[in-house]
Write a structure and sequence with these properties.
alpha+beta; Herpes Virus-1; Hect, E3 ligase catalytic domain fold; 11% strand; zinc-finger; ubl conjugation pathway
Length: 729
Amino acid sequence: CVLCGRTDDCPEKYGEKRTYVEYNLTVHYYCLLMSSGIWQRGEEDEGVDGFLITDIRKEVKRAAKLKCNVCKKKGASIGCVAPKCKRSYHFPCGLQKECIFQFMEDFRSYCWEHRPVQVFMDKEPRGTSQCTICLDLVENLPVYTVLKSPCCKNAWFHRECLQYQALSAGIFFFRCTVCNNKDKFQKEMLRMGIHIPERDASWELEENAYQDLLHCYQHCDVEKCLCKKGRDYNEPESKWEIKRCQYCGSRGTHLACSSMKSWEQNWECMECRSIFAKSGKYSKRKKCALAASEQTNGTPCLLEEPPPKSPRQSSGSSRSFLLQSPKIMCQNLSPCSHLEQPASNRVTVSPSPVMSNQNWSLRHKYLRQQRKEVCNILKELKAQVKTKPTRLNINAENIWSSALKGFRQRIFSPTNTIEVNFSNCKNRSKTTTSASKHHFFQVLMLHLQNSSLFEGSSGKNLTLDFQALKENLYFEAGKMIAVSLVHGGPPPGFFSKTLFKCLVYGPENVKPSLEDVADVDVVQTIKTIKYANSLSSLQSTLQDCCEFLTAAGCLRPVTALSDKNMLVNDILIYHVIKRIILPLESFGQGLKTLGVLEKMQMHPAVFSSILCHKPERLSAETVYNLFTIHSSSDVNKVEGADFWMGYLQDVESGDSVVTLEDILLFVTGSSYIPSIGFDPEPTIKFLRIRYPIGNRLLNCLELPRTKTYQQFKNKMELTIRNTLRDERE
């Protein structure tokens, strides 16, 4: 280059390197633009983009007299525009020294001492956040290599990432990657030295780049086509409309040729059907669907998302039996059994109460078995935990803040044994009991479930909270859940199936449903599009919500009523998955603590039982089976066990002043059964003592021998009630 003297050919850094043989001239485009003594005096097709060859020669001669303040060589054609500043430098040297070059108006240049800087508020927390372009961490510091978005408080970028994005997107598509603001964002980036070329985006310049996407398969492939106008004939909103395979989209059929009564019905081609048949899934699903139709005597099933005229069935109805439809089952990512599926993913029919009770019992039996397997897996992970203690000082009046502070302290290690000290700000009293840790994890999980990090009624998904992202709270939440599971906390039980599958299988492999959307306005928009009954009403709806669809990146040309299905799917994927991709990645990183996420991905079915299903309510049978009964040689074991079982049944039926949770708390210090189980396992001893004793160190319940059941019951209630009352006080 005649201006900087370098042979580098790097368009991203120095602009296009151009050689003009007839003039014996080679120049970097940016070196030419930023040179202080030259202007575009010609037309665009004259010289080098309007820079006349004679002017370039004069500029080279002028620069030959100036020494670069960086490399100390002659030829420094660029000078700082700050008053009284006499620094000169080559363009590459200026980049190296972190000068600012403004590619706008007069193409001003500022040296490293006078360059413009971004204003940072003193209250803004310093730390790290995620660059939303490369997704790597970026330090929130006022330095040359880092730029802050002027329109989003929590958006930070690497300068290099922004420059590559600007060169690719061009002036028409370069905007804030978080909020899509264009004017304010471009103005600030130009001020801070980002070059935004005045051309279309690189992906728009490629000829016929989207031609394949515009092609829609329209051909009837059934063995016997009934259409007299041929297999390629397609008449929308009639029986001769072509329906494509719901899985591959590369085969089609006229509605009439496959005896389909409406567009809403699903159709699979023979190739896709054979794939499912070979895997053994398709036949099972067909049998399942046939069984459902026989049991309902031909009554049509209500699909997961019925049309507006069909009322939605209550998922909580005790009279409803949940059976999965072939469509939904084929779309599942993993071969899950029927019992594992939540109500939101099933079809509702109404069989006899006997059948409902049988399946309810089977469902609980299945979940119980899965939770036993989780218990064994978590015990394997607990082998990492050392006996060295880490103490958490928890303020009872502000558990979340003190927990966050404790988890972030330098000495905290998830592989140490956790001890919890509860304190009260008013009287500064401290309590450290064996129950403290169990109570802490229970309250912490409840807080997370109801926090702003999650949204939804029962099955919850992650929210998009930029402040939480900035403070790395999603990571901390994942870490807390992982630590809780391994250290004896309760099963969370509030994950939605979609959130769980995103963590286990990856977000790109998950198909969300309408139930995953918590925003009422977005739900209404999706329903309006989904249930549009004509092309004109669909287009009118899209016009009304054009701004929303543009922001979501889902705006597409609609030429047929069938396009609404793809549009609805795009909106769901954006709102439920793409929008929260950063929180999801951060949350997943937190769950990697102690190897929990890895085990989740290895055993998805068993972990689903504790993350997506609420814990089983304590029953007399559960508590009875939890304890192993030991007795000395002079004790009638059967008689003692009868009193014990009888008392548990009375407590369950409400014929007692204590609860099953109170009994568990009295013995173990926990009112719930941890996902990892108790260590050591709870035991019972019948001894010649006056009152029952709960040994929390050994999880041992020592029971008195009595002559009558009433004496046994009175002693149990008196001891448990008074002990727990004293602890609470």
